[in-house]
Design goal:
This protein is of the alpha/beta class. It has helices at residues 11-15, 31-46, 61-66, 93-99; strands at residues 4-5, 20-26, 50-56, 74-79, 82-88.
């Protein structure tokens, strides 16, 4: 499955699922975000059973505030509309996959 650009308009639709959801909070100007982005894209392609969404914090400030995103990149894993894991900062692929377990 491909990565979904998450906005406040489609947010409820994205998280209202029985699948695991990985949310990547990022900004275009953020160097560590640019390092994590291709890894998140790869995880989305390799794991069609996971919904992967990217949220641009500059465009979607209300969603960033809703999740108390204090630094980027921030990765949030949700199941059944509940946060089950969170990580801040750049992470290697193995560490991101561990968040999904």
């Amino acid at each position: 499955m491909s990565v979904i650009n998450v906005t406040k308009q489609n947010f409820e639709e994205i998280i209202n699922t029985d699948k695991t959801v990985l949310l990547d909070f990022y900004a275009d100007w953020c160097g560590p975000c640019r390092m994590v982005s291709p890894i998140v894209d790869e995880i989305a392609t390799e794991n069609p059973d996971i919904i992967v969404g990217k949220i641009n914090v500059d465009d979607e400030q209300s969603l960033a505030m809703q999740f108390d995103v204090a630094s980027i990149p921030t990765l949030i894993v949700m199941r059944n509309r509940q946060i089950v894991n969170t990580a801040m900062g750049a992470r290697p692929k193995a560490a991101i996959l561990d968040l999904l377990k």
